[in-house]
Amino acid sequence: ILHAETNRVYHLNVKAADVADYIILVGDPARVDRVAAQFDSIDYTSVNREFVVKTGVYQGLRITALSTGIGCDNLDIVVNELDAALNIDPETRQVNGTLRKLTLIRLGTCGALQSDIQIDSTIVSAAVLGFDGVAHFYQTDHDSDSTNDNKSNNNDMATQFMSHVNPWPVHWNRPYARLASPVLLQHFGDLGTHGITLTANGFFGPQGRSIRLPLVMPNMNERFRNFTYSDDQGNNNASKTTWRVTNFEMECSALYALGQALGHDTLTMCVAIANRY
Question: CA–CA separation, 123 vs 141, rounded Å?
Answer without folding.
Answer: 27
